[in-house]
């Protein structure tokens, strides 16, 4: 969940700055549905396989201590946008992303707007596009069978692996995320597991080993991405007069990141 600066959806550039001349029309899926959009990225390379159109939605129930985009917490801070408008814009890139990537719905927490997400996924699948959902899984119970059928991949961010540490880090419960992971495993829906490594917070080896064992036991985790913590969003907390609990925490060393990756590899998981 990595929103960039806000980009006007209607004026977004084509992949890497080239807009196709003859843009295909998308399927008219739930044209009346509207939702709150923070920003878009038309050439995303880290939010799923290939080059992707990434849509960052506003709204999130978690309050992660390391969140670098607190400007996505509240829906009203986004731009109210129709599904039809977004599908039309996605359709302009259809030929490129169909061959080289797909569409990823991120946030914030996209499942904070489940009807909007469902309509967007349906429209994307009608265009024959690969779809991915970047989520904490905390609201996974809102994913119904129809939405699940339109998902090709889930980028699942499991932020900690003890109830106490998860609640300290996010203000929420861990179990809904684990239950969503088990549900995905039961139907064989592919997962890319994401784990943010924060020194002093999520670098406890026993917990990482336990998470690795859990992930390996699911049987549907394609890869684990270990993401080193950074301070790029600290200024947003200051601008909003929010209490930033990670002020002064340094990013993990390369050695610490590699040690964490080795713990996941030891459980038989592919790691990037």
UniProtKB/TrEMBL annotation:
<keyword id="KW-0670">Pyruvate</keyword>
<dbReference type="InterPro" id="IPR007197">
    <property type="entry name" value="rSAM"/>
</dbReference>
<dbReference type="InterPro" id="IPR001989">
    <property type="entry name" value="Radical_activat_CS"/>
</dbReference>
<keyword id="KW-0560">Oxidoreductase</keyword>
<keyword id="KW-0313">Glucose metabolism</keyword>
<dbReference type="InterPro" id="IPR034457">
    <property type="entry name" value="Organic_radical-activating"/>
</dbReference>
<keyword id="KW-0963">Cytoplasm</keyword>
<comment type="function">
    <text>Activation of pyruvate formate-lyase under anaerobic conditions by generation of an organic free radical, using S-adenosylmethionine and reduced flavodoxin as cosubstrates to produce 5'-deoxy-adenosine.</text>
</comment>
<keyword id="KW-0949">S-adenosyl-L-methionine</keyword>
<comment type="similarity">
    <text>Belongs to the organic radical-activating enzymes family.</text>
</comment>
<comment type="function">
    <text>Activation of pyruvate formate-lyase 1 under anaerobic conditions by generation of an organic free radical, using S-adenosylmethionine and reduced flavodoxin as cosubstrates to produce 5'-deoxy-adenosine.</text>
</comment>
<dbReference type="InterPro" id="IPR012838">
    <property type="entry name" value="PFL1_activating"/>
</dbReference>
<dbReference type="InterPro" id="IPR012839">
    <property type="entry name" value="Organic_radical_activase"/>
</dbReference>
<keyword id="KW-0408">Iron</keyword>
<keyword id="KW-0479">Metal-binding</keyword>
<keyword id="KW-0004">4Fe-4S</keyword>
<keyword id="KW-0411">Iron-sulfur</keyword>
<protein>
    <recommendedName>
        <fullName>Pyruvate formate-lyase-activating enzyme</fullName>
        <ecNumber>1.97.1.4</ecNumber>
    </recommendedName>
</protein>
<dbReference type="InterPro" id="IPR013785">
    <property type="entry name" value="Aldolase_TIM"/>
</dbReference>
<dbReference type="InterPro" id="IPR058240">
    <property type="entry name" value="rSAM_sf"/>
</dbReference>
<dbReference type="Pfam" id="PF04055">
    <property type="entry name" value="Radical_SAM"/>
</dbReference>
<feature type="domain" description="Radical SAM core">
    <location>
        <begin position="46"/>
        <end position="270"/>
    </location>
</feature>
<keyword id="KW-0119">Carbohydrate metabolism</keyword>
